[in-house]
Amino acid sequence: GAGVSQSPSNKVTEKGKDVELRCDPISGHTALYWYRQSLGQGLEFLIYFQGNSAPDKSGLPSDRFSAERTGGSVSTLTIQRTQQEDSAVYLCASSPGGTQGKNIQYFGAGTRLSVL
Amino acid sequence: AQTVTQSQPEMSVQEAETVTLSCTYDTSESDYYLFWYKQPPSRQMILVIRQEAYKQQNATENRFSVNFQKAAKSFSLKISDSQLGDAAMYFCAYIRNNAGNMLTFGGGTRLMVKP
After folding, report:
1. Least CB-CB distance to B100: which of A50, A59, A93?
2. pLDDT digits (tens, 9 = 90+) for A7-41
3. Can you tell me the distance from the alpha carbon of B20 to that of B16, in angstroms, rounded to the nearest whole number?
4. Is B14 in contact with B111 (CB distance < 8 Å)?
5. Do B103 and A31 touch (CB under 8 A)?
6. DSSP strand pairing (B74-79 vs B19-21)
7. What integer pLDDT is reported at residue B87 of this predicted model?
């Protein structure tokens, strides 16, 4: 597609359930990022992929959070046993990577997660 | 660690007027990029303008320009001839110049444009 696509756009779940959030980056972009945007914490980095590997997982808030990327393209962020504090907008971004990327990240419209 | 601070939670401007949004940052690096992103209610972050730290010349994109003061670690955004469509959250962001580094964001400034 022309831009970064995220699904679902909105997700409502019950506390304790698992959720999967999907990100489809811009075609050809090798770098992929997940961020979380919440009222109390602002925009926080979660994880970065270069190709299929994740050299930087430093932002994942707990072991309930995991992410994978297959085929150097689509990524899924999984939150297990969701808690109310997980409620936030989860943003995905992609970048061409390398010097040509000029460090610009292109964002999707995010998934708004509400944990009841 | 790098930090980015936006001291103005909200700003208001009259349509067609000029407004300046403030941003300061802290880093020990010398090679980095700074950005302003716009986030309308649709939630999608849109890149407004980018500045390379090694360039002394301030970046300009149509009605948007920056005042980059490297020594002071200041990076303000000026919006000229404000339009109703400029109303949004604006985020200042920093990234170290190395492929794969994360963006560090400020807390954001909500810009309201009055007709």
Report:
1. A50
2. 999 999 999 999 999 999 999 898 999 999 998 77
3. 13
4. no
5. no
6. antiparallel
7. 97
